[in-house]
Specification:
five-stranded mixed sheet; 782 residues; seven-stranded mixed sheet; 13 helices; alpha+beta
């Protein structure tokens, strides 16, 4: 037999020819193995004249010899032979400029007659006598040892089948290609000569080398489909249970059809397909191993046979079945490890296992200053995520930790070490996200868990922040001898793509989560820098991934600028508001409503959020990412004055507006009132605010003043802070305005509130309302 891989190439060429043959237009011809054929569409077009001739009349001859002797028809008529001693010659013929040839219309007439006359209560099978169709009329066929066709595709596009339950001696024959298509049976044997698999590679219907039919029939006693008067073709077991069939309407039926995706009332829309299952066979020259199923006590386990011998691939703690090896890199298998039978992928090294419910690995890069770096619990050695995320086979980090440029287990927080180039060995493969290493909560953990609780996706999270770093340190093209944060993040993209490809997955970067701005509080060019940051990342990432989708930059506002005692207001926080307002990216939320108590409530540092605060903010990131381009935080839509009254309308409002005021017992999630709920006037010519109330319909804020509002007046919110004040809901620049969004917090947030924060009742389940962002806007005078 020829080299296996050569035969696979020949098989692929034949399949490509078939695709052209069936899908080509009226000008398409197909050449394969030195023979040229018209596509079906071209054949129909070329034969139109013959059809017209049939309408106008046709010639008749008793024998084919008489027809041949008559020569060319006078008016291009068709000819019919009706009483030849050789039954196969009694057909409809057309003149092809040199001689009479069988009309393909005969096949369609035969098909119509067979369907009309077939006793559909009888199972189709290979007749005892030789079939009238020779193998030469088929472009693909399964035959018995005598050449009788059991199933095949004819040269005119007709699908023909007479398969019975057990046909002895069947082999698969590809027209002009002698290679066999081998598949791996669920028990690991390689005696399958031909098979049909679903879109994920799971074998559903097959013929063994000894001619036996194998079909995957789950719970056969409860099958809904049986052979009956509506089914014109089927493969069924001895009890009449249908594995795959076609009813009179053309719809696929049966156990296999019931598992296929995208069936739209027609066989051609069924995703089930004939395919070569990779890794099903290898020789001493192959590196591709064989993966089999063995019982390991209570569960089926995968074992691999390779050049080093036989060894376990799965650990035997869960069921693993139906393996198929791909690209000499990974194996697909099915498992019910989470209670639902689904497809998984695993590296042949065993280092990464992931769900296969989504063929794309989505990478989220975490960038910024120290608040972008994982945080511990409030003075305790614990994270909300724990050792593993809720979806350990759907949310991943690199094997070197979520921040892969760590140098040692104890010194990762050192800001100097955060600039060390990433060791490639720290990004060699993927592991489930979580933080058993340092018990820290990273951005991305909570966001991806929240997203996957609604729609299963595959995520990779990697962090590349540096404590205390301004934009000038984190931007692109910083000298290599100084800083590496940007370069590290781009290296992580390349590593993420490699890891995805090793698992047979597509890859893209879905978002940039950015926690930054404290060190740029007085940077008047910060808005331009945010835009430049976003654009540079998009350009460099797309060069690696090839993705067309833009990568959004998601940010939160930093509300700790007054802590240093040098300035009461911030330019970067207003730039962050303008970044959302002017359509450059996503502002997720302010942070004034979150306690900045990374060192614990009794000794807060006033600038860093704790593990709880990180998780809380991350669930706001999830809200924004899920909303996509429709996202808006709670922010002013218009600020207009008429006389002594300023009316503020809002974008991003969900439900009623409210002043969410802190109370230790009744409302521990609120914000203490800094005065006028956080609203203030600037450049107002000496007038002052007398009251701030909500409109009657609770959709607007009404600011009353003690004089007519002059041109140039600015309205600010959560803007001016008290020098040296810690950031957070009780001190620092803040405001009390929120909406009534009912998005629930995760169970992990609720559990932390109850067990660590001592909350109870409604405080435990308090929804993730949207807090008004810090803003500064010039009042429009009406």
């Amino acid at each position: 037999m020829a080299n296996y891989f050569n035969e696979v190439s020949r098989l692929q060429a034949a399949i490509d020819a078939l695709d052209e043959y069936f899908g080509g237009d009226e000008s398409t011809t197909v050449t394969y193995n030195g023979k040229t054929k018209n596509s079906i569409e071209k054949s129909f077009s070329d034969r139109f004249a013959g059809l017209q001739a049939m309408v106008n009349g046709r010639l008749t001859f008793a024998t084919k010899a008489l027809m041949d002797a008559a020569g060319a028809p006078p008016n291009n008529e068709l000819a019919e032979v009706w009483n030849d001693p050789t039954p196969g010659n009694n057909k409809l013929y057309g003149w092809d400029e040199t001689h009479w040839t069988e009309s393909k219309l005969s096949s369609y007439t035969d098909l119509k007659t067979r369907i009309q006359e077939t006793d559909v209560n009888l199972k189709t099978r290979i007749p005892e006598q030789p079939l009238p169709h020779s193998l030469d009329n088929f472009v693909w066929a399964i035959t018995d040892s005598e050449g009788k066709v059991g199933m095949g595709l004819k040269s005119n596009g007709e699908f023909f089948s007479s398969i019975c339950q057990e046909v002895m001696g069947l082999t698969q024959r590809q027209h002009s290609v002698e290679t066999q298509v081998l598949a791996v049976a669920p028990d690991g044997s390689t005696d399958i000569a031909w098979g049909i698999s679903d879109q994920n590679g799971a074998l559903g219907l097959a013929l063994t080398r000894d001619g036996k039919l194998w079909a995957r029939l789950a719970n056969p006693e409860s099958l809904r489909f049986k052979t009956d008067e509506n089914i014109v073709w089927s493969v069924a077991d001895a009890a009449g249970q249908v594995a795959l069939g076609i009813d009179k309407s053309g719809k696929t039926v049966g156990e296999i059809a019931n598992r296929c995706d995208n069936i739209d009332q027609a066989l051609t829309a069924c995703d089930t397909r004939l395919e070569l299952l990779e890794g099903s066979r290898f020789t001493s020259d192959d590196a591709s191993p064989l993966v089999l199923v063995e019982n390991a006590g209570d569960f089926d386990q995968l074992v691999v046979i390779d050049a080093d011998g036989k060894h376990p691939l799965t650990d035997g703690s869960y069921n693993a079945r139906n393996p198929s090896v791909h690209k000499n890199s990974y194996v697909k298998f099915s498992s019910d490890r989470d209670g639902v039978e689904r497809l998984y992928r695993m590296l042949l090294s065993g280092q990464t296992v992931c769900k296969s419910h989504n063929n794309t690995l989505e990478h989220i890069l975490i960038i910024g200053q120290s608040n972008s770096i994982p945080k511990r619990g409030m003075g305790v050695d614990a994270s909300l995520t724990g050792d593993l995320v809720n979806d350990p086979y759907g949310i991943f980090m690199f094997n070197g930790w979520v921040n892969p440029n760590r140098v040692t287990d104890s010194a990762w927080w050192d800001t100097a070490l955060q600039d060390v180039p990433i060791d490639p060995g720290n990004m060699a493969y993927l592991i489930p996200a979580g933080d058993g290493l340092f018990n820290n909560e990273s951005h991305g953990f909570g966001a991806c868990e929240a997203i996957n609780s609604q729609a299963e996706r595959l995520f990779l999270i990697s962090g590349h922040g540096k404590g205390g770093a301004s934009y000038s340190v984190l931007k692109k093209d910083v000298p290599a001898e100084n800083y590496s944060a940007y370069r590290n993040s781009i290296e992580a993209v390349a590593a993420g793509k490699r890891a995805a490809n090793a698992l047979g997955l597509d890859y893209k970067v879905t978002a940039l989560f950015c926690e930054h701005g404290e060190s740029d509080a007085q940077n008047s060019g910060y808005l331009d820098h945010l835009i430049e940051w976003r654009d540079n990342y998009n350009a460099d990432i797309k060069r690696i991934t090839g993705q067309a989708d833009n990568i959004p930059l998601l940010i939160s506002q930093q509300n700790s600028w007054s802590l240093g005692g040098n300035f009461a207001t911030s330019k970067s926080v207003i730039a962050q508001y303008q970044f959302q307002r002017d359509g450059y990216g996503y502002l997720v939320a302010p942070k004034y409503f979150i306690a900045h108590d990374a060192n614990g409530p009794t000794n807060p540092d006033g600038i860093h959020t704790s593990a709880y605060g990180t998780r809380l903010l991350d669930e706001y990131y999830a809200k924004a990412l899920l909303a996509g381009e429709t996202w808006s935080p709670l922010m002013p839509e218009s600020v207009q004055a008429n006389g002594k009254t300023i009316t503020v309308s809002f974008a991003g409002r969900v439900g009623d507006l409210r002043f969410n005021i802190y109370h230790e017992t009744n409302n521990p999630h609120g914000v203490s009132d800094p005065g006028q709920y956080g609203f203030e006037l600037l450049n107002a010519g000496g007038i002052a605010i007398t009251s701030v109330v909500l409109s009657d319909d609770k959709t607007q804020v009404i600011v009353a003043t003690d004089g007519d509002v002059p041109n140039g007046t600015e309205l600010a919110y959560a803007y001016t802070g008290e020098l040296m004040a810690h950031a957070g809901p009780l001190t620092g620049p803040r405001g009390c305005l929120a909406d009534s969004d009912t998005t629930p917090p995760s169970e992990k947030l609720q559990n932390w509130r109850a067990t660590q924060l001592g909350m109870n009742g409604a405080a435990v389940t308090e929804p993730l309302c949207n807090w008004c962002v810090t803003f500064l806007e010039t009042v429009e005078i009406l």
